[in-house]
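Recall from the previous lesson that a structure prediction takes nothing but the amino acid sequence as input. Here we apply that procedure to Histidine kinase from Agaribacillus aureus. The sequence below is the only information supplied.
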Amino acid sequence: MMRFKWNKTTLIIIFWILFMVVDSLKKIESLTANDETLWLYHLPGYLIWILLTFPLNFLFNWSDKLSLWKRFLFLAGSSLLLGSIKVMLSWTLFYLSFWLLKNEPLKGFADFLSGITLFYFVEAFIISGVVLIVLFVIEVYNKYREQSLRNAALETQLAKAQLQTLKMQLRPHFLFNANNVISMLVRKGENEKAINMIAGLSDLLRMSLERENHQLITLEEELALLEKYLNIESMRFEDRLFIHYDIPESTRLAMVPNFILQPLVENAFKHGISKILGKAEIKIAAKKISERLQIRVFNSGPVLDSAKPLTRNYGIGLSNSINRLTQIYKSDSKFDLVNLNNGVQAEIEIPFYQKVK
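The prediction returns the following tokens.
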């Protein structure tokens, strides 16, 4: 079922209509019995308030980039200014309307404006403040709704990433290759290695299934699962696969998206390691640069065809990873694939947030 999305302009107009109804009911006796000419002030005043709400809304949105106290002072000043403008416009319009409709002589315009009491300025300032409170409530609601939708999208992306990771780990050729290696080790009498590989495979599957459903985990936790996967692959490739880690201690508690490295390494084996017969390398590195975290996964093997668009090199796993980075960090993340020496390097750059011990 579709949900109606309230437009801010609609809400502003509804607010002023309700305000006009309530205010008129409160003043109906004085407006009819005492001085009916006050209708010439109040009714145009509501229209002026509606029109002035839009520049007030613009200033309210613009002030969002200011600090809390600066924003408060700026909006208080804006409220005072626009409230004063409203009072002057209302009474000017009242002066002209009274003169035209009643055709009665009035005192000088300057004298007329100077007679406006302080009460109307205070009233206008208070009403401007009420409008700002309404705008603030709308802003909080919109941010809450946006965050809820964003969290729902992130949960969906995480579920897809987990499912994709499990598919990678459970797909037939991975288990078939692992089973062949175990069988070979048993035939060669290397039972201890076979047992270690079986244990490693069990740990990998268990950790994948038990991984908490969190969007962000520490880099150290992410590497723990990845090492299980690489240990199995290193047994399959025997002595020709060399794995290097360059993970400074200062980066191990950095928060990273859950299951973000698995697709990169899987892509490295599929398009790089499996394509060469000689020595193969996997290098996983992390570095803190200012307030940014850079993660690099390098694999030896065929380089990318520079004549083709980079997106042609994105499989399902990499595409999901890029989408998740965008969902979590919006435009504050980077992903790239580059040719480097005799291989390809995947690079991720995200804001550096460290888990508190």
